[in-house]
Amino acid sequence: MTRYPDIATWLLLLALAPIRGLCLVALSHGWQPYEHLPEDEQLVLQRPPSDSSAATRPSAPYALPFPSRPGSRPSGFIALGDSYSAGIGTGLVNGTEDDCRRGANAYPVLVQRDLNRSRDGGDDPTFQFLSCTGSTVGDMLAGAEHSQIDGFNTTSTADFALLSIGGNDLGFFDIMNSCIFRFYSFYSGTCETALCHADEQMASSDFENRLRLAIMEILDRVRWEKRPWFTITVTGYARFFNADTDECDDYSFGMWWRGPKLERKLRQRMNDMVVDVNNKIRHSVDVINAAFAEPRVLFVDYDDAFEGHRFCEPGVVEPDYARNETWFFLVGGLDNNPSAEKPVLGAQYALLPPESPLIDPENCLEPAQTSGDWGELALCMMAMAAERDPMLRKADGRVVAENSMCGVLATWQ
Ligand SMILES: *[C@@H]1O[C@H](CO)[C@@H](O)[C@H](O)[C@H]1NC(C)=O
Ligand SMILES: *[C@@H]1O[C@H](CO)[C@@H](O)[C@H](O)[C@H]1NC(C)=O
Ligand SMILES: *[C@@H]1O[C@H](CO)[C@@H](O)[C@H](O)[C@H]1NC(C)=O
Ligand SMILES: *[C@@H]1O[C@H](CO)[C@@H](O)[C@H](O)[C@H]1NC(C)=O
Prior knowledge:
Signal peptide: 1-21
Protein name: SGNH hydrolase-type esterase domain-containing protein
Largest sheet: 5 strands, parallel
Strand content: 5-15%
Shape: globular
InterPro entries: SEST-like, SGNH_hydro, SGNH_hydro_sf
Number of domains: 2
Domain SGNH hydrolase-type esterase: 79-288
Order of helices and strands: HEHHEHHEHHHEHEHHH
Oligomer: single chain
Helix content: 25-40%
Bound molecules: 2-acetamido-2-deoxy-beta-D-glucopyranose
Radius of gyration: 22 Å
Keywords: Signal
């Protein structure tokens, strides 16, 4: 299918941009903290010797940020999982986006940059970036059509893996769609159904079993027995909302006129879901580690770092497309790319040709569902909603029929 790179910059949902100063600080016992440092600083892995005549670079053996081969730096790593590690919305790579919507400032890329900068004259670490927006556990597993686990090159060195997975298995898209955005208007399904579905998934043992299977498949494929230093760092998810602010009770992210309000109860419920997923992931990781003599998997809960950077923060009028302190990407919002010369503007400049298969209401749904891409699904559902109901009014009150669908989408903000 032909891709239209422009739309990728704008119609992507809440993928996250854990950038600018967000530190993945892992302080589990026996593991060294890792911090992403700004561009002009050396990644200091160990306090430099107090003797000021000594070299400023730390000398081996390093106190390595990740458990790793004793006495040597990580020489390579892989990143797998969903949009949270693909880094959707963190800036375009070479002005465009691949099918997996990997971003220029995705956290694995920041890790690579840090390792590059602190390599001490050795070879650059190898990096295999396999994360893919929309990916579920099932998509990753060995044997799946685009299996990330089958896809990584085991000949190339990898001393650790970064992994984000699970959210799409719980129907994060359906929840966002039915409770918050309602892309498909009346046909979006009820919020309650989507939330119950996620609760059911989490209550069954299947979710954790599959998660553990994915982690074990990664360990097996790298042959961990031969690489006892190999570890997997699994990230969780961040709560989307500040659930305390009153003013947000009246705001809406709805795509259409009179969309659902962001009431505290809803915000709290969605946040609870995120906390539940994190607990499930943490538990799965604990179970795996318990089976090994030494921990192999590290769960990183970075949710606290998002304090002040969620939706509905005090004084923010949602939807605030330009608030770069919100670390989630918003429909029609800007890419959150600190190194871009100017912000990449979304909707106003994104023109989809009317013949784009992405907004062909008759045929877009199946390919969008197959790709699992939230942006594509959202676009298609809006096109379908507009076709089914030409009198539908956009969130700002304008009637769809006043413009072509193409015009509607192009001036979404
Ligand atoms: C970006 O473009 C340059 C020049 O065409 C190319 O060498 C490089 O491989 C591209 N980078 C990526 C990540 O595709
Ligand atoms: C790391 O170094 C390699 C090789 O020099 C380079 O291709 C890559 O772009 C660098 N990555 C980052 C994120 O700086
Ligand atoms: C896998 O990595 C090795 C070592 O880096 C390289 O020589 C080989 O070409 C890679 N294979 C593929 C299929 O990319
Ligand atoms: C973030 O937004 C503020 C206020 O709009 C602006 O002054 C600042 O330059 C922005 N920062 C970046 C990195 O885009």
